[in-house]
Each structure stands twice: as C-alpha cells, then as structure tokens.
Amino acid sequence: MPPIQLLDLAAEHAPYQAELDAAWRATVQEAAFIQGPDVDEFAAELGAHLGGANVVPCANGTDALTLALLSLGLPRGTEVIVPAFTYVATLEAAALLGLRPVLVEVLPDTFNVDPAAVRAALTPRTGAVVAVHLFGQCADMEELTKICQLAGVALIEDNAQALGATFAFASGETAFAGTVGEVGTTSFFPSKNLGCLGDGGALFTRTAARADLLRQLANHGQRQKYLHQRIGLNSRLDTLQAALLRVKLRHLPAAQSARQALAARYDAALASVPGLHLPARDARSSHVFHQYTIKVEGEGRRDALQQHLKAHGIPSAIYYPLPVHQQPAYAYLGYPLGQFPVAERLCGQVLSLPVHPGLTGGQQEFIIAHICAFFAV
Ligand SMILES: *Cc1c(COP(=O)(O)O)cnc(C)c1O
C-alpha cells in the first residue's frame, strides 16, 4: 500500500497527466501569459458549470474576498459580519480594507454560521455579511438571504471550500454555492476541490454590471488600457493556471463523486463509534467534502486520536486549531476567550481525515480500522 497522504495531488493528476502536459505546453508556445484566451474560456466554462453565473477570475481566494468587498464601496469602519470559525482570509480581507470584522458564532453540527447570531449582530453600521460554506457544505442560505434582504446589507459567499455544492430553497429553487449572494468568491489553491497548480481565485455574480466592476477592480481599476477609473488591484489569474484549470474542471465531477463516495464509506463505517461525531449533513445542501471533518468528544481525546493515527502513518489535520478571535493579529477586535464557546469548543474537537480523490479503497479501510482500534470498537 502506498503511503497515505492528506492530499495526494500526484495520484489525483496521474490519470490525466497527459492532458495537463498538453495544456502547459500549448500555453508556453502561445506565450500569451497574461490575459490569454484561456482565461476567458475558463471563466465561461466555469460559469456554465455553475448554472450560468458570471465568473471573474483573479489571483487567489483572498484577493477575491478583497475585490468582493471593494466592489461594495463601503466606507471605512463599516461592519462586516463573519463567522468566528473560518479560515483567517475571510476577515483579513475586511480588515485590510479598513472595515471592521464583527465575529459571530457558528452552529456546532454543520460548523457553518448561525443565522440567529448574524441577525443579532446587525447594527446600523453593518454593510455586509460574509457566509462561509465550510468544509464543502452550504451555510443556511435560506435564512441568510432573508436576513440580509430585510436589513438591506450585501451577502457575500466565501465559497473557497464548496465549489459545486448546491442549496435547495423552500421555494423549490436550487442554486450553486457562491451564486446566491451579491458576490461569491472562490480559491483555486492546489488543495481546494478545484485547485490549480499554484495560486488562483475567482468571483461569481449574477449581474453583468457587477461582473464588469469586479473585472475592472481586478485589473488596476481599468476597463480600457491606461484609463484608470478606480483604485484597483493587480489580481489576475495567470493564463497558464487557466489552461490547467480548464483540464481540471473537466475532471471535477468525477473528483467530486470520489470524495462523496469516500465520505459515504466513512459515514457507514464510523456511524456507531461512541464519542465520535460524523459530519452533519444539512438536508437542503449537497456536500462536496472539501474536508471530511469528525468531532471527537472528551478532553484530549482528539489529540490522542491524531497521535494514534500518526503513529500508524495516517495523516490528519485540524481545521482550525485556534478560533480567529484568539489570533494575535485580531486581538484589537477585543473579543475575550469565552465569547464564542461553540467555535472555541470546535477547535478542540475537530479532526479532518484524508478524503482526496486519489485515496484508494485499501487506504481508507486501513484508516477506518485504526480509528476503530483507537475507540476499541
Ligand atoms: C482557502 C481559503 C481562502 C483563501 O484562498 P487563497 O486562494 O488561499 O487566498 C479563503 N477562505 C476560505 C474559507 C478558504 O478555505
């Protein structure tokens, strides 16, 4: 059995290595490295994949968040509501723009933002809510959409982890994650479900006008060369990455099914392990399992399980070990320890298991066997 990896991109790419090689060779030959034709073609293909959304590529997922907020034109000091349990980039973008991140609690089962906490955090200074579809499952878009509409604030979706997931609304409508709010953002960091071979990102929006604005902001605030209407960023997706992403997008449905099949096998095998909680499924959302994240009850038990697995050559990861309000850089926000008990507890309980499409059945059996051995079941 080959060594188990948390993410095995070489194994994932192997079946279509020749397609990737052809793509980079063609890009090197064409030599249109910035804004080459592949960038627009990739954007159109991804848009079609996501039910017709406008897609604006950019340099990475953090820039996508910055551009999304920048496009709202919020005055400095405007409050932006973000979950207390997320990757730091979600609030970093707001903080860098001089906006004030307002943290709110998450739900203990889905790990996603608690709509009631969002409602309670609204003030006359709120300008936007950033929902994060953590680990591959949509936040409660039904409630969040209603809350934001009623309050007249923009809903931004940080969709770095749930590209391709769908959410079913009570109205009967179904929408792709990232295409519901005013702007959706994603990342093509190599470990994401649709990852490139370096850094990359994109924005989603339903309106052509917002797409035009985002495109302008991502390219030095210019629509026409050397005419700068706005202060923007240099945040473009490299042609090379776009060419490689076009290949990987074709293989995304198979990769997504592989992740879902692995998740279903973990679910079945670990369902009756006492003290271990499976990832909760929200019936309204599909789950694309960017991470398969279990919760382990009991003081020190999660860390003991991680050590046990490591001793048997099984990697796992803790997303995230420290809630954002406890990060030194965000101490200025003034949230004491104990302010977000759910987020704080999750940091001590979560463990993400290997769920990448390159994981073999034999490797997964081995992982399951060692988890069961740890819990003596
Ligand atoms: C990865 C990630 C980002 C940042 O994306 P980069 O491309 O690494 O800048 C933002 N938010 C979440 C939730 C992420 O997982």
TrEMBL record:
Keywords, alphabetical: Aminotransferase, Pyridoxal phosphate, Transferase
Highest taxon in the source lineage: Bacteria
InterPro entries: DegT/StrS_aminotransferase (IPR000653), PyrdxlP-dep_Trfase (IPR015424), PyrdxlP-dep_Trfase_major (IPR015421), PyrdxlP-dep_Trfase_small (IPR015422)
Molecular function terms from GO: transaminase activity
Pfam families: DegT_DnrJ_EryC1
Family according to the record: Belongs to the DegT/DnrJ/EryC1 family.
Full protein name: DegT/DnrJ/EryC1/StrS family aminotransferase
